[in-house]
């Protein structure tokens, strides 16, 4: 009986595959292209890909990896943007390699900086 079970195990369990979420992974990299060179599987780390883009005095750093959806939502609720001085943007997604983009803070900083110049020009013209 044991011999039959041992022989049947590869047939019964051999086709079972566990597919884990794949995310891009990096810590404190300045270039999104460099950051997208390494992937990780989220077996035990979580069910969500997270991207954090921080910018201080114009210097941008990107970190990416696996996390839980709860941790990512918590981190993204602390997003801040103070123009060119400082900013932090966390984004969450849940499909394979979905955390490919890492430039959202720079675009937002440019928009806010442009808006501040426009408003100050309007105030000075009054």
Automatic annotation (TrEMBL):
SUPFAM superfamilies: Snake toxin-like. It comes from Salmo salar. Residues 21-113 form the UPAR/Ly6 domain. InterPro entries: Ly-6/neurotoxin-like_GPI-ap, LY6_UPA_recep-like, Snake_toxin-like_sf, Toxin/TOLIP. Gene3D superfamilies: CD59. Its main location: membrane. Residues 1-20 form the signal peptide. GO terms for cellular component: plasma membrane. It comes from the Eukaryota. The gene is LOC106588985. Keywords: Cell membrane, Glycoprotein, Membrane, Signal. It is found in: Cell membrane. This is Prostate stem cell antigen isoform X1.
